[in-house]
Amino acid sequence: MLPPVESDPLPVGEIQPVVESAPTAEEVSNIPGGVRAMINAAMKTNDKSKIETVLALAQQAAPQGEEEIEVIETAWRADVAEKTRLAREAETRKIREAGVFELWSGEGQLGGFQASGNSNNVGLSAGLKLKRQGLDWSHSLRATADYQRSNGVTSREQFLFAYEPRYQVKDELFVYGLAQYERNKLQGFTGRYAISGGIGYQIANSGDLKLSVKAGPALRVTNFTVEEDETRLAALFGFDFDWKIAERLSFTQDANMVTETGGQATVIVDSSRTTLNLVSGLDAKVSDRLRSRITYAVDYDSKPPEGKVSTDTVTRLTLVYDF
């Protein structure tokens, strides 16, 4: 029989080492747990104003952790700046790579109107506005139509089409071009063509208030229904005013004034005819894409054709759809 195998005895009194984990940031932080939880909850909202408010309150509630809160704020602002930079680069790349028919937005409107002046009646009104915003260039197209037939006779026929490109020279300064066509037999002309170019300035451009003005020379050709056609040099002045009165209510004011020279296609010396187109509008937001709009338009001609009055007014009630 083999003798039993003796195993090595276990060491007596030996203690296994204990590995202690490093303390967490919360355990060594001077920011109380409740305040830190409030900061973390605010960060998850991604709401800039809310985060700034919470950080300011946290510094007041935990002055002993002011330095840590400043570190948190610095890191947050750096992260926001980096995300903004990346988003801007992505948007720039999208615009540069977009085709001619991409990046267009606009609105369409349909409604009725009541007119006074050379006519007193009611009818239908339609309009379309398109805009393409690029890095430096923007393009806008605008078309409106008023049409009515009474007892088989056309009593109102007014059309307008305008194309305006703009180049942003600086933040506020821009140059523009304008090509416009009008037709309004009630005012005594079957066609009025205008080409203009000049400079403009953005006076105000805040979130709720926008105001820009523009001015430049123009060439205008008018085909009258009775009188001889005219081709004149002119000066064009215009302004565009938008005011967001409340969350769902906004006011717009657009105007174009053209003063013609006395001669036929000569240098501007003395005005012969002044026309003014003034459109005031009030929009009420119904949904994200649908608005109701009431506009009041004034068309003034200082030298109307024989048998016509100087001022026409049109009040329109329309529904506007954004796309």
Protein topology:
Elements: H1 25-28, H2 33-45, H3 48-61, H4 66-97, E1 104-116, E2 121-133, E3 137-150, E4 153-168, E5 173-184, E6 189-205, E7 209-224, E8 230-246, E9 249-261, E10 271-285, E11 290-301, E12 311-322
Antiparallel strand pairs: 1-2, 1-12, 2-3, 3-4, 4-5, 5-6, 6-7, 7-8, 8-9, 9-10, 10-11, 11-12
Helix pairs in contact: 2-3, 3-4
Organism: Pelagerythrobacter aerophilus
InterPro entries: DUF481
Protein name: DUF481 domain-containing protein
Which CATH architecture of the largest domain?
Beta Barrel
Spatial order of the strands forming the largest sheet: 1-2-3-4-5-6-7-8-9-10-11-12
Molecular shape? elongated
In whole angstroms, how far apart are the ends? Answer: 100 Å
Q: Please tell me how large the radius of gyration is.
A: 34 Å
Summed up, the helix count is: 4
Could you give the order of the helices and strands? Answer: HHHHEEEEEEEEEEEE
Instruction: Supply the helix-strand structural class.
Output: alpha+beta
Per CATH, the superfamily of the largest domain is monomeric porin ompg
